[in-house]
Amino acid sequence: MSSLQRPGKIVCVGRNYRAHAQELGNDVPTEPLLFLKPPSSIIASDDAIILPTMSRQVEYEGEIGVVIGTHLTRASESAAQVGIRGIVALNDVTARDLQRSDGQWTRAKGFDTFCPIGTEVRPPADLGTIEVTTRVNGSVRQHATARDMVFAIPTLLAYISRIMTLEPGDVVATGTPAGVGRLQGGDVVEVEVDRSIVRNSVIAAG
Ligand code: ZN
What we know:
The protein is α+β, with helices and mostly antiparallel strands. It has one domain (10-204): Fumarylacetoacetase-like, C-terminal domain (Fumarylacetoacetate hydrolase, domain 2, Alpha-Beta Complex). Helices cover 16% and strands 34% of the residues. The strands form 4 sheets. It has a 5-stranded mixed sheet. Strands 4-15-14-10-11 form a 5-stranded mixed sheet, with no helix packed on it. A 3-stranded antiparallel sheet has the order 8-5-13. Strand 14 and strand 15 form a beta hairpin. The longest helix is centred in the C-terminal third of the chain and has 9 residues, at 153-161. It is globular. The structure holds zinc ion.
């Protein structure tokens, strides 16, 4: 995806991998848990993630991002699968302390630079084979495949489309696997999803 092409919305899924729900002390949801990130949070590979002064605990969340190619309203899972245009590496950067204290996630997930997105690549025929890997300063912190998800990608898209129409260019962030952790100034964080890579340095605000 061109970094200048902003999606109309970024729909995110929380707690979509069992081991990650457990590592934060949460139950696995019985329905997809949805939230939004503002399109203004998007940055491209090689842009810097800026640590806001409001937070003392900013964490990476490497995720498989799905780019929508068609209008999906109350779509079946098969129609949703056909409506996928591409996949991207996505980092759902989160101020974990604010996520806990605010009770809802708009601030914690919405800071400028909190949504690094890599180049768009074609989805494989079998979506379950998509892999996501997160590295911090070169060492692997997260690794999973789409098969490890609680709700598979077509199920997520069909579910979201019963609430809000998914439009061409919209991005769905499908949840992060276990292994989330802190980012500090000077770190370099990289999320790889198949052949899409997004790599960002981390700097303190001001
Ligand atoms: Zn996330």
